[in-house]
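Incident review: delayed structure delivery

Summary: a single-chain prediction request sat in the queue longer than the usual turnaround. Root cause was a stuck worker, restarted by the on-call engineer. No data loss occurred. The affected request and its eventual output are reproduced below so the record is complete for anyone auditing the incident later.

Affected input:
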Amino acid sequence: MILDNVSAARSASLSRGSNLAVEPYQSERVSFPAHLNHFQDLWACLELSLTEMGLGEKHRWRWYITVLELVNNAISHGSISDPSREIVVSWAVIEGQLELRVKDEGNGPPDRFTRSPRLPDDLTEQRGRGLYIVHNFSDSWEHWRSESGYCCVVRKRLAASLQAELSKHAAPFESFGLSVSKLSAFYQLAAAILHQDAPGTFVEKGIEHLVGCLHARPKRVFVILSERLHCELSDAFDGHTYLRSIADAPEVVLQVLRGGRGVDWADGCCHPIVANEMNLGCLLVEVGKEGGLSMTESGQTRVFADLFGIAIDHYRLRKECHHDEQFRRETEFATRIQRELLHPRELPPSPYWEIVHRSAAHSMVAGDFQESCYDREGNLIMVIIDVMGKGATAAIFALMFRTALHSRLQSDFDLEEFLESFNNTLHDWLGGDTRFITRSIVKVDAARTTLEVINAGHCPALLLSGGELVCQQHATGPPLGIFADCHYVSERRELYSVDTILIVSDDVFEWFEGENVWGWENFVDFAKATLPFGYDTFWNSFQERINRSVEDRTSLDDQTLLWWNRSALAPETSSTI
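Output delivered after worker restart:
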């Protein structure tokens, strides 16, 4: 069977603001400039074909990863990221197989990547994993070079008997399924802000993603802007049916607009859309009485409302600023994400311990993030991460991690399984990109008898007792996102043997004293000498130490610390404490 040409409906949907050229061909054929911005338009066309073939969502997702890897290779290797070059993707069903072809004008990947693709032995190797994914997914694949360029062909049987095999191969890509849709939503929404989508279109996309995260299709989803903003931005929201005026809004909307605080009820919620300390409007979601709305779904709605606020306010700023100030605006956007969505939430005081978060950012947007929270069993979770780079990209990836973490806290929370699942998901999304996240996480059980520490490529966590070093918890695996299918091992200790835990970012000790880096060993000795006198003494002495050695503090990078100390006055509930 040969697939028909692209349908009129699909052509119309792709033509709206798209640079794709969909041409008549005996199979479906799409051409586009060599830039990853056009991938989602390509996927919209291919996904419709896969749906018409009867492939379910999990199998379409596996094709998504495969096509993304091939297009990434065509852009980076074949086209050298030159958008003046063209990439052509075509597909057809031939004798029960789906055949996909990706052609570019270059020479393709280096031979060492195409000969028996496998995962690289060197954990620091940044490439060579994409074709391993393609090789393991496909029934057959071939490639060749010619005068006109490079072509890669992937074939996969579509027979019903193959469903079990498809599920087996898809298993690594279904890890962390609960959070993938949320991570995808935030990634795409953040990209939409940076690509300066009009707020009306951005909010419409956001509502589509939000609806996809809910367990049941909502009865109604409305956005109501404040009266002043409704007039100011009426052109940006023209034609969008989700927008409602205050005159048509129910009483709960007026309550949220007046008070600036969200309201939850059995089958719905309404959360304010806030940015820059201004109440811009609110987001209302009702799912009907069947099943109700969970606390997790209400929390997701609140985060979407926050993103809508950032997007709307970002649009207002963009209208006021000149084009050459774009970099400053994007930095401000990332700063808002960090300030409004990534700041550590203060936990209620505990008689058993004290927790201090400290971050001295030396740029507008840091790449570090820290968090302390409880899971549903009452276990204390403390985490610090360091995202490669700074700015909007770092803020987006930190937000993705925080969303994944809090989604998992609503279910059974296993540190090793969570870390491995998130690593696989992040690796798939990065698609061979060189960005990564280091992370150290500590779990103190609700019974206050044991602690568990796990480290993914981060600098060591210090565990001390009475100023003496109990251990340095070194990394048990590489940073997140670099390498798929990694295993991370946690270490468990009796809590009575530890009274202080200190986790820091590497910039705390990687600063220059004269011509030499101060270094980790000096920092450990300093911490052992000052921490027994309390955190304030340690922090103030540390800042004085830097001031004596560093003339220009603007040369310093971000310094982030998370400190936990067991209270000497804690109630006696166990013979070990």
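Verification: DSSP finds 16 helices and 23 strands in the chain.
Action items: add queue-age alerting; document worker restart procedure.
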